[in-house]
Design a protein that fits this description.
This protein is α+β, with helices and mostly antiparallel strands. It contains five helices and ten strands. It is globular and about 45 Å long. The relative contact order is 0.22.
Length: about 190
């Protein structure tokens, strides 16, 4: 299934996602480089919400750029298979290897997110928009994890009911709450 069809078939969970879905589909029709960072205005990212088998913990990393606890994720970098991008990012940012996608690999959150200007690898990156597609995975909370020093300074299983409050990014709190709600609805 191609990305545009996946997004077209995605059923928004709230008004925010309805509006963001419309925005994303228009952006896909307007830009031919939206899967790459060459598009400095907006581009696709993919993230993973990784829970344990009991669904009471979630993997969070402490992002160096954002100075906040958050999910794993990264840029599409030209790849249309955003599920594989999300999985790759979990592996790179946490070292977890035994992760399984849940809910048949369906998109679990669709968001248009602001990305503030920041320095990355010594170079300034201007403010832009991340078109975020998120998936939910499961992993063993006993598997050893390690940080990816150039991106995060901590990685840990956090109680799922504390995840929203651990984030210091106001625009991410509703996203994390939406994913927690999805987990609870699908138990």
């Amino acid at each position: 299934m191609n990305l545009k069809r996946e997004i077209m078939n995605y059923i928004p969970v709230n008004e925010q996602e309805e509006k963001d879905k419309e925005f994303i589909l228009k952006a896909m029709d307007s830009y031919d480089d939206i899967l790459t960072r060459e598009n400095e205005v907006m581009h696709f990212t993919s993230s993973a919400w990784v829970v344990n088998k009991n669904r009471d913990k979630v993997v969070m990393i402490y992002h160096n750029i954002y100075n906040s606890w958050g999910w794993t994720g990264g840029h599409a970098d030209g790849k249309e298979d955003l599920l594989s991008v999300a999985k790759r990012e979990v592996e790179e940012e946490t070292s977890l290897k035994n992760i399984n996608v849940l809910y048949d690999g369906k998109i679990m959150a669709l968001d248009v997110l602001p990305c503030a200007g920041h320095f990355k690898r010594g170079k300034y990156v201007s403010s832009h928009i991340h078109i975020s597609v998120a998936y939910i995975f499961e992993a063993d909370d006993g598997e050893e994890m390690r940080i990816k020093e150039d991106e995060n300074s901590n990685v840990a299983w956090q109680p799922i009911d504390r995840a929203v409050n651990l984030s210091t990014e106001p625009h991410m709190k509703p996203v994390y709450q939406k994913l927690i709600n999805r987990i609870y609805q699908m138990k």
